[in-house]
């Protein structure tokens, strides 16, 4: 009779599921010892796992559920990881894992254990949480601010007083017209004289006598 241990090719078939490696079972090629389920080699294997013994341990008999420490496909730890991650390994790996399980079931001399997918998982699998834009800030909600997009300030009037540049004395000069002081430019633009004595508002343009 073939050895009934469920072992793995851990290094060759493992895949990352979240932060842990998972793998799948394979058949032991050994012959079971007389009146026993296990071959010579498997008789000495441990049946308790930790991340470092997954490759050497027996992941249960083909008739049994994998032990709770086992991280192979279909084990309790595997489903827990898949549920936490919200996904399973890629389809190629899953196919290989299912095939391996089918082989194990065929090789089992009595009623084989079969993989039970938790009912809670079938619907949620592969549906990762979608990141959505945060809603409008609480204070804007239900107000007119939510309806209209915010207008970006492109230009803001400076609160600095406009700067007056020193004037070219040749182009503008102070003169008197009709008894009041005005500024007259070289081309005849006449400006009011403001309270500080500087050129103010434009008044009119006068004829410039040609020289
Ligand atoms: Zn064996």
Cofactors, ions and other ligands in the entry: zinc ion
Shape: rod-shaped
N-to-C SSE string, H for helix and E for strand: EHEEEHHHHHEEEE
Distance between the termini: 130 Å
Secondary structure category: alpha+beta
Q: Give the total of beta strands.
A: 8
Give the overall average pLDDT: 82
- Strand fraction equals 15-25%
- How many separate domains make up the residues? 2
Taking pLDDT < 50 over at least 5 consecutive residues as the criterion, the unreliable ranges are 126-133
Major sheet size, sense and barrel closure:
4 strands, antiparallel
Helix content: 10-25%
For the largest sheet, list the strands in their spatial order: 5-6-7-8
Count of discrete alpha- or pi-helical segments spanning 4 or more residues: 6
What is the radius of gyration?
45 Å
Characteristics of this structure?
211 residues, alpha+beta, four-stranded antiparallel sheet, 6 helices, 21% helix, rod-shaped, binds zinc ion
Describe this structure in words.
The chain has 211 residues and is of the alpha+beta class. The chain is built from six helices and eight strands, in the order βαβββαααααββββ. It has helices at 10-13, 40-43, 76-85, 91-107, 119-124, 144-147, and strands at residues 6-8, 15-17, 20-22, 25-27, 172-177, 180-185, 189-193, 199-205. The strands form three sheets. It has a four-stranded antiparallel beta sheet, with no helix packed on it. It is rod-shaped. The model is unreliable at 126-133 (pLDDT under 50). The structure holds zinc ion. Residues 3, 5, 28, 30, 38-39, 41-42 line the site of zinc ion.
């Amino acid at each position: 009779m073939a050895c009934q241990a469920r072992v793995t090719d851990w290094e060759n078939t493992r895949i990352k599921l979240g932060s842990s490696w998972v793998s799948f079972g394979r058949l032991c090629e050994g012959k079971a010892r007389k009146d026993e389920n296990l071959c010579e080699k498997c008789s000495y294997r441990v049946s308790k796992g930790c991340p470092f013994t997954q490759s050497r341990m027996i992941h249960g008999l083909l008739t049994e559920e994998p032990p709770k420490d086992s991280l192979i496909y279909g084990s309790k730890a595997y489903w827990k990881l898949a549920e936490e991650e919200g996904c399973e390994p890629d389809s190629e790996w899953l196919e290989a894992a299912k095939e391996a399980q089918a082989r194990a079931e065929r090789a089992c001399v009595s009623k084989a254990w079969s993989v039970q997918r938790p009912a809670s998982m079938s619907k949620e699998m592969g549906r990762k949480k979608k990141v959505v834009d945060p809603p409008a800030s609480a204070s804007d909600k239900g107000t007119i601010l939510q309806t209209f997009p915010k207008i970006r300030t492109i230009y803001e009037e400076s609160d600095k007083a406009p700067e007056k540049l020193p004037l070219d004395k040749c182009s503008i000069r102070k003169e008197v017209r009709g008894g009041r002081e005005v500024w007259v430019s070289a081309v005849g633009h006449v400006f009011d004289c403001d309270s500080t004595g500087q050129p103010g508002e434009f008044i009119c343009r006068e004829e410039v006598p040609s020289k």
